[in-house]
Amino acid sequence: MHLKTKIDVSHAVVFSILLYSCETWTIYRRHIHSLDKFHLRCLRQITDIKWQDKIPNTKVLAHCEMTGIEAMLVQTQVRWSGHLVRMSDTRLPKAIFYSQLASGNKPCDHPVKLYKDALKKNLQLCNIDLATWETTAQDRLLWRSSCKLGVSHFEHQRISDLQLKRKKRKADVTTTSLFQNCTIGGRGYAAAIGLYSHMRTHKR
Fold first, then answer.
1. Closest to 148 (Cα-Cα) out of 60, 66, 78
2. What is the rounded average pLDDT of the residues 156-171?
């Protein structure tokens, strides 16, 4: 079976259920990590890429021509917010979105994240002006193109940051001072466990 066919089937069967009604979610960073791990594990099984191959997640996504799970969530929520703004004022979702509680206080120690807070963050990630986004959303075609362009920019920046982080981590490992040299072979090790394992081979 062709790779594109496998990915299309996973979209229709797996991810449509996994992300059902995700446009109304209020997501924390720990939720994104959990979803992203499942997403990448599915793609690695589809492409038969094992962890022993030492292929980073960014290359797996590029090989499958897919975005990360966070970009999917951002795009779905931002596009749905535009649909919400274009609703008539009598619709219940719009009435709930613009309504406020008459009484009640948020806890001071650790306030619960609100849906509007998550939406505001996603709009900022897509470089959409918070002051004029409701006006822009009235034009459906303009809003969809703005969302697509913003999510593409966000995903490109996210991939670039991950690649720089990985390159920096690899550079730090190579420049780390060696822990100790082997007294027999002269080989250097950056960690004590590496030297210990190497010395066990000489004892044999």
1. 78
2. 89
